Amino acid sequence: MTRALIAMSGGVDSSLAAKIMSERGYDCVGCTMKLFSNEDIEGKEEPSDTSGTDRASDSISGAVKEPRTCCSLDDVEDARSVCMHLGIPYHVFNFKDEFREKVIGKFVDCYEHGRTPNPCIDCNRYLKFGKLYERAQILGCDVIVTGHYARIEERDGVFHLRKALDESKDQSYVLYALTQEQLAHTVFPLGDLKKTEVREQAKDAGMINASKRESQDICFVPDGDYVSFLRRYTGHEYPSGDFVDKEGHVLGTHKGIVAYTPGQRRGLGLALPAPMYVSRLDVENNRVILVYEEDLKANETIVDDVNWISGVVPAEPLRVQAKVRYRQKEQWATVYPLPEDEDPVTDDSGTRVKRNRVRLVFDEPLRAITPGQAAVFYDGDEVLGGGTILE
Q: What structural domains does the chain harbor?
């Protein structure tokens, strides 16, 4: 019997994924990754545990207490409850150190260097399909399973990552870093379902979390105020500086460079004759460069640390559809692999390191291509790969 390790957040998606895999005859093991403690990010104690009786009665009455963030005790208890309901074992894995280094650390570093990170991509890359995959092998599991909305298809021994049938829930953008080995040992049971169908099936199965709300994007910033999080987490104060236009004329004073991201218009606190937008963050001089909307567009960028899902790096320019943010519609573009002499990277010792960078040129200019975000390449509904926008 094939053994499956189910990554369970306590939400309805991963819970139904566990149910589906059990019904398919897999030997299932449920688990939750403990990534941080609420006191780590809020400076407060975690809420005290509640009894299973109180939790169940809340569910029956429709008054389920909503968690402040993932990794709470309520989320763990919801995942445990579903596993008990399904009759499968359940574990909690402590990955806090790895999460702090690979996700929160990178999140902080990006903002402090004028980039805009996507921590969900890093969590998938290093935790869900990295650290958890290693744990699955130790436990003798053949596959790992998540509640992501995406599909995996094998053709002629090659694994292909495709969009979910429900494009409104599609999460293929944040999965571009998956490799052939990972795809060969991963199952996405929800890829063919709509979100409404997921909730209906969970409700019919009597799951405690069938109506639970969606989790927020940045799990470790529960109130959405990432600037306050950065100050609290690092102990740093980010000094004010100048807003300037593209000619360098001072337009006003900003509140700390980490508070701004390319394309931003609201919250600048300036009285200007016409709307202006953040174009670039000059970290070295602590300046925020503002431009008018017509100057915000560009049609090309350099993409770093590119992963090609097939494992084959194109030798020639490749026509793709690409997008540079999660909710954006794909746009036609050409990927130009950079020759090694145009891709110089050295490590701390001065040794040359081969990195996979490309030049991405769009047919039409796009608004606010943002360093730190992901550029993901598609062929129809298939993800070819992607990387991090460098400039």
A: 3-204 (3.40.50.620), 238-294 (2.30.30.280), 297-389 (2.40.30.10)
